[in-house]
Amino acid sequence: MSEVTPPGENTKKGVSRRGFIVGGAAGLAGIAAAYYLTRGNGGPGGTLEGCVTTDLSDTEARLAVSNWPEYIDEDDGDVLSTLSLFMQQSGIDVTYTPDVNDNVEFFTKVRNQLGACQPTGRDLFVLTDWMAARMIEAGWIQQLTKANVPNLDANLISSLEGPGWDPNRDYSAPWQSGFTGIAYNKSLVGEVRTMDELLTREDLKGRVTMLTEMRDTMGLLMLSNGADPSNFSDSDWSAALDKLSKARTDGQIRAFTGNEYINDLAAGNIAACVAWSGDVAAAEDENLVFLPPEEGMMIWSDNMLVPVQGTHKANAEKWINHYYDPKIAAQLAAYVWYVCPVEGAREEMESIDPSLVDNPLIFPTEEYLASTHGFMALDESTAQGYEQDFSDVIG
Amino acid sequence: MAALQRALGRNSAYLLVGPAALWLGIFFVIPMISLLTTSLSDPAGSPIYGYSMTWRFENYVDVVADYWPYLVRSFVYAGIATVLCLILGYTLAYAIAFKAGRFKTLMLVLVVAPFFTSFLVRTLSWKLILADNGWLVETLKTLHLMPEDGRLLATPIAVVAGLTYNFLPFMILPLYASLEKIDPKLNEAAADLYANPFKRFWNVVWPLSLPGVVGGTLLTFIPASGDYINASLLGNPNTQMVGNRIQSLFTTGSDYPHAAALSVILMVLIVVMVMVYVRRAGTEDLL
């Protein structure tokens, strides 16, 4: 097949065909190599000053939002969802995409554009504390204009007011908070009370999943070893890692997953797992139970962020302000069952669904919060070391 | 050809090669260089602040030492899947080429039909079929072909079955193309010379179908060994293939240099294996 054309016909003059192709490829390769050698790979290496784009909100009534799946209420008959209400009240056309399934995965998706100061097509996305911290640190996130988000200032609950990575909430606004604990399918197995049961019980063998989110999985493991995830040592870390590694080799763990574990739990492919508090409620399956492990659970929040190349910042701020209206927040919380970050929503909940007012998964009491733990803030290189350890174990 | 040459003038070859060369240059050569430089970078960098390229060949040593079981597993799974595809695909292609009669076109359409839905959706539907509470597992348990606590999903069997299913059409089509070209009269002639059916197959049909066998096995084995969807949806943490490892190094591990080095090793190994295979099969001129 390779010798179809008569030789000599096309190659009388100048370079031969083969020479042309090889030479062309080599030339391109050379240019690319020179580029990568001088510039290095990956991030921008410097700050992104001057990268902030002009805000087109005045002329374009549009907003593109990326969020986690099952993280917003939907229109229900005559009752408009919080999203529809926002579109109706503001006249802004929202493109809402549930394409954040995992912090790191999403980071990989947008890293090249953000690092090179190019638009990602998103005006607002929602990421967990540690990833939000990382992006703000890298200078990829726009500062919010306080005057545009009065509700945020007035209604943010005090426990979320000043995290170390954004002390004045200049760059971020919590969307929802939540707990990481254990979920099980009660039609298949009896109560699973501790992480040790989850990792060793014979009737759960091969029917357990854990989260690929390192801080959730490892946080719970450290708690089960009696260590404090908000302040741990290297040896605490290795002990927890060994425990995970053993459970994996023993075949106790079926998979490491993102949000998709909930389908497998409902379908009966897995019997118990590490889970996020709201997912279990959102699945609306009476067999699924979420429970805090006896040794304590992890707490986190997901934060709304406006990337530097988001071209509709003022619209995004309208969105944030909308969701910090207690009434809207209560409507959302009644649907997603995560911890509501908005003061006053509890009172509003009385008229929406009184049974939820005293639900600690939505409006946790001080006492309840005392049994929850955050994950220690890590600097970039420590974080990477731990992430590599973790990814070596989860395979 | 001559008309085309007149229209394009003396440089017709360059003009014809041009678009494809440009395409490959932009989407293959440049990314390849990017991959190679990343694989030789210092892993001390980070995806945010970038990596510096230091000709760090140790990355390659590291990944082979750390991840060789994933490579071995990938080639074993892909090998088994390829053999299964060859057995299933050969019989089907043979039937379509020689026995299907007027149903030939219909059968070919049916072979290609799965491509109308996405790879991902097809693999996800295998999860439904193999589910722990699904009809298949229930039936096998009722028939005592499977122990009470047995399962199919999240086992190596599920991964290999998924690979076999997903790459079967890539085996069937080249096999069909070479079987279909075989003149049935050759078979009749062999019969006239008192060759029994087995001899007719082994001495006439099989050698003539070799280009299809080589093409089909390559088209199956190469993508199957680099696949990670099947292992990630149908497998468990102990059945992960090298593709999964590369993916998790790029994502959860945020360790780009080692991920790139592992990708390069996978590519090189596949190229070497293909070359040895083609040499051994003595079919260079058949490709």
Question: Which descriptors would you attach to this protein?
Answer:
heterodimer; A: 395 residues; alpha/beta; D-Maltodextrin-Binding Protein, domain 2; 2 domains; ten-stranded mixed β-sheet; globular; disordered N terminus; B: 287 residues; mainly alpha; MetI-like fold; 74% helix
Per CATH, the class of chain B reads Mainly Alpha
Just name the CATH architecture of chain B.
Orthogonal Bundle
- In the predicted model, the low-confidence regions of chain B spanning at least 5 consecutive residues are none
Alpha plus pi helix count of chain B: 12
What's the end-to-end separation of chain A, in Å? 43 Å
CATH superfamily of chain B: MetI-like
Overall body shape of chain B: globular
What is the approximate shape of chain A?
globular
Number of strands of chain B: 0
Query: CATH first level of the largest domain in chain A: which class?
Result: Alpha Beta
**Largest sheet properties of chain A:** 10 strands, mixed
What is the β-strand count of chain A? Answer: 10
* Biggest interface: A-B, 56 and 53 residues
Number of DSSP helical runs of chain A: 15
Would you write up a description of this structure?
The complex is a heterodimer of chains A (395) and B (287). With 395 residues, chain A is of the alpha/beta class. Chain A has helices at residues 17-39, 82-90, 103-115, 129-137, 150-155, 195-200, 214-224, 234-249, 261-267, 277-282, 313-323, 326-336, 345-352, 366-370, 380-394; strands spanning 62-66, 93-97, 124-128, 172-185, 208-211, 253-257, 272-276, 288-291, 297-305, 372-373. In chain A, helix 7 crosses helix 8 (234-249) and helix 12 (326-336) crosses helix 13. The longest helix of chain A has 23 residues, at 17-39. The relative contact order of chain A is 0.16. The relative contact order of chain B is 0.13. Chain B has one domain: Orthogonal Bundle (MetI-like fold), CATH 1.10.3720. Chain B has twelve helices and no strands. Chain B has 287 residues and is mainly α. Classes of the chains: A alpha/beta (395), B mainly alpha (287). At the A-B interface, helix 1, helix 3, strand 6 and helix 15 of A face helix 2 and helix 11 of B.
